[in-house]
Design brief:
The structure is a single chain. Helices cover 42% and strands 18% of the residues. The protein is an alpha/beta fold. The chain folds into two domains: 6-276, Queuine tRNA-ribosyltransferase-like (TIM Barrel); 286-385, no CATH class.
Amino acid sequence: MEGTMYQLIAKDHEAKRGRLTTPHGVIETPVFMNVGTVAAIKGAVSTVDLKEIKTQVELSNTYHLHVRPGDQVVKKLGGLHSFMNWDRPILTDSGGFQVFSLAGLRKIKEEGVYFNSHIDGRKIFMGPEESMQIQSNLASTIAMAFDECPPHPATREYMQNSVDRTTRWLKRCKAEMDRLNGLPDTINPQQMLFGINQGGTFEDIRIEHAKQIRELDLDGYALGGLAVGESHEEMYHILEKTVPYLPEEKPVYLMGVGTPQNILESVERGVDFFDCVYPSRNGRHGHVYTNQGKINLFNQKYEKDMRPIEEGCQCPTCRRYSRAYIRHLLKAKEMLGMRLCVLHNLYFYNTMMEEIRDALDEGRFHSYKEEKLYGMGQINREKEQA
């Protein structure tokens, strides 16, 4: 698509405050995308709930939807937006990560990957063109390029070959996406394509790859293959070295990251799109976020605690229910317990992103970040003193 609709509103050192205009509405960045793998947020959370907890972008998984109900089915039903009744932006991943995590089930060739379905074992082939076709059928707002997700750790030689293939695949993705967006029966002919930077922790490979893919003038750029086992310090170092080589006037997306701390540190290093399963996964296990740190509602000490998860929190859970009640639901294995925790956690993340954007607008991001990190370390400090 000619000329992305991304506007850089403010910069605070490396940190970016942006606005991406899409066919499905405006995304204010930095943004945290809420993960709904199979077109639903795990924990019985609906798209109606998502609006109430300030979700801007929903993320769905190409591989899972291709296997069930099938992307052709979703296309017949008018695309993902119509299917799940969500009128805001949707980002679909490429399916690459799942294909590569079906390790032992896979064979990588230049044309793509042969692997077996995790549901019924049938043989599936996915390459760049197939991934684009599936995502076009799903009609998401933003499609991700099909990339090879190299194992961590990988040898330098393996990594270089893998990244070279990812670049060749990216060119095929772009050509196919351009073709699909020109077809008369495409549901979303303005579908955007984000390319993915790989290279593990080899900073020179990362930088060289960033230089190559920025030439393709895509709608946005992601950093993949991080948060897969390297230390936080290594990840921040790679961001510091690589992000400056990605176009400032395009979205920069750090895939699969992360904790509130990770997000704050990465915003400071120029990232403005995030996604992670932590808030929903932790919520389903009764682990909830507060501005003092994370608490585990299974803990005996909350049995008679009539306070909300966080005083002053405006989420649907904290406005109505106590820690004691939620703990009871979790102990009784009632689905409502998980649901209330997931709603709170997603609201916490979405609200933190709002605070980050306000701080960037007002040029006080660094002090906001320091205060937020200090606050969230409070529970741990108290534990150490106990």
